[in-house]
Please model this.
Amino acid sequence: MPSIFSRIIAGEIPCHRIAENERFLAFLDINPLAKGHTLVIPKQETDYIFDLEDQLLADLIVFAKKVGLGVEKAIPCERIGITVIGLEVPHAHVHLIPINAIGDMNFSKPKLSFSQAELSTIAESIRTQLS
Ligand code: 5GP
Model:
C-alpha cells in the first residue's frame, strides 16, 4: 500500500504545495509546530532516510535548503530548524520549522491549527519567496 505521502505526490490527497521537481516535493505539514512548518520528501518511497542512496539523500538536503531559505524569508523567525523523525509516516521526510528558541522544536508540544484559507496564504507567501 502506498504511503500517505506517495498519495499526496499522486494528487490523491490534497496538500499545500510549496515546491516540486521530478524527484522531490515540499508541502506544509498538516499539524504544524509553527507557522510555515514544511515537509520535504523524495518522491521515491523509502521509509528510513538512511536507506536513501547517498546522492538522493544529498540532493534532498540541497532541495530542503532552497525551500528552507524561502520559508525563512516568508515567516519571521530566528532561523529554520531542520529535523528528521519519521515515527509516524513511513516515507522519508525532513521537517523545516521556523524557530526562535530550542523549545520550538519540541514535537511533544500541542500542534497549531490553521484554517485551509490560512494554510493557502502561508504556502503562497513561501512560494512567492522561491520564485
Ligand atoms: P514523523 O513521521 O516525522 O514523526 O511525522 C510525520 C509528519 O507528517 C507529522 O508532522 C504530521 O503532522 C505530518 N503529516 C501526517 N499526515 C499528513 C498528511 O496527510 N498531510 C500533511 N500535509 N502532513 C501530514
